[in-house]
Write a structure and sequence with these properties.
8 strands, three-stranded antiparallel β-sheet, single chain, 16 helices, elongated, hpI Integrase, Chain A, mainly alpha
């Protein structure tokens, strides 16, 4: 029977040995296949293809014998943690996003998978691992899946694995949080409270927030060299996250946010305080230093809502309040979308305008009190 074996193929008790020459060296590779006639023939074809690839200089152990020790030596990064670090190094996202992905890998995956070879990790193992975590919301689980998918996608492209074990693990459904803008009476109540009880800089900060629609990270990064009183707009081209200035917005798009009567008035008042002293428009009233993050404005926001008896919502709602106020005042949806820096007017309609009908004021009354008619 030995004479019928393909060249370089030697059946063993529970495996098949493949012998081939590569880089002037004789190699012996064990395939975990039972030595049946069909498997022996299959091994012979595999060896023949490998020899042809060696001849043309295209041979890699990963492609032909991914389970061999030579394949492990050929690829520098083989463990899950190795590829986790490679994945993080290839990201072009913001530092804040990268930090979140790093935390997800360290919290959910490294304790169990760090030293495992990526090719040894199975789909069923990942399902069991994900099932062992007490995710409070599907959104948290979905976010944790992002870096996991990224790690195995990179390993697949490197041919460190033949199949992606994350494939088939779907996102869970979750409820998108609705915009929750303030009523115009609530805006007035809040701003009146700030004006009566707090430093004037807080009044300027929140009035501009309500009537410009900036993201908090954009507002604390706004500098006077981006404010053009002659042309009537603020150029939004940077943001600040965790003390770091980012020379781009969340969407990586520069936009000009036009003044209205309320936002311009707030900036003119603010100019008397910080125009000559600071490059940033808004500073902390207690220290006179630029805001490093949104923590202090958020605390003041929470304090004001409680003092005014207004139902609590997060401080991002100043942005949503601008949107609904502008639309109720007669502003065009495309203009509002551009002011907010949304990708499209449809996004503005779907995410924000749905709450506007709950407002109990007519368009004329809102326009008169907010002075945003555009």
């Amino acid at each position: 029977m030995g004479s019928t074996w393909p060249t370089g193929i030697v059946p063993r008790n529970q495996s098949i040995e493949v012998r081939l020459n590569y880089n002037d060296k004789r190699h012996y590779v064990s395939l975990p296949w039972r030595p049946t006639a069909g498997n022996i023939k299959k091994a012979g074809k595999l060896r023949q293809q490998a020899q042809e690839a060696i001849k043309w200089g295209t041979f890699t152990w990963q492609e032909f014998f991914p389970d061999s020790k030579h394949a492990n030596e050929e690829t520098g990064a083989q463990t899950f943690k190795d590829y986790g670090q490679l994945y993080l190094n290839t990201l072009t996202c913001t530092e804040n996003t990268k930090e979140k992905y790093t935390q997800a890998l360290e919290r959910f995956y490294y304790p169990n998978l760090a030293d495992r070879l990526v090719k040894s990790i199975k789909h069923s193992e990942l399902l069991a691992l994900l099932g062992s975590f007490d995710f409070q919301h599907n959104k948290t689980r979905n976010n944790a899946l992002i870096p996991l998918r990224g790690v195995f996608k990179l390993a697949l492209r490197d041919r460190a694995i033949q199949f992606n074990p994350v494939e088939g693990i779907e996102n869970g459904r979750h409820q998108q949080p609705e915009a929750d803008p303030l009523l115009i009476e609530e805006i007035d109540t809040f701003l009146n409270w700030v004006e009566r009880t707090q430093h004037p800089l807080w009044h300027n900060y929140f009035e501009y927030a309500f009537f410009s629609g900036l993201r908090p990270s954009e507002q604390i990064a706004l500098c006077w060299d981006s404010v053009d009183f002659n042309r009537g707009y603020s150029r939004i081209e940077r943001s600040k996250i965790k003390k770091k200035i980012r020379k781009h917005t969340k969407t990586y798009k520069v936009r000009d946010v036009e003044f209205n009567a309320r936002s311009k008035t707030a900036l003119l008042r603010q100019k008397q305080w910080t125009f000559l002293q600071n490059s940033e428009v808004f500073v902390h009233p207690s220290t006179g230093e630029p805001f490093t993050n949104n923590a202090s404005p958020r605390l003041m926001w929470n304090k004001g809502l409680k003092a005014c008896g207004i139902r609590h919502r997060n401080s991002y709602q100043t942005r949503h309040t601008f949107c609904t106020t502008a639309l109720q005042s007669g502003a065009k949806i495309h203009w509002v979308s551009q002011q907010l820096g949304h990708a499209s007017a449809m996004m503005t309609l779907n995410r924000l305008w749905g709450r506007a009908p709950l407002w109990r004021l007519t368009r004329t009354k809102i326009s008169k009190r907010c002075k945003i008619g555009v």
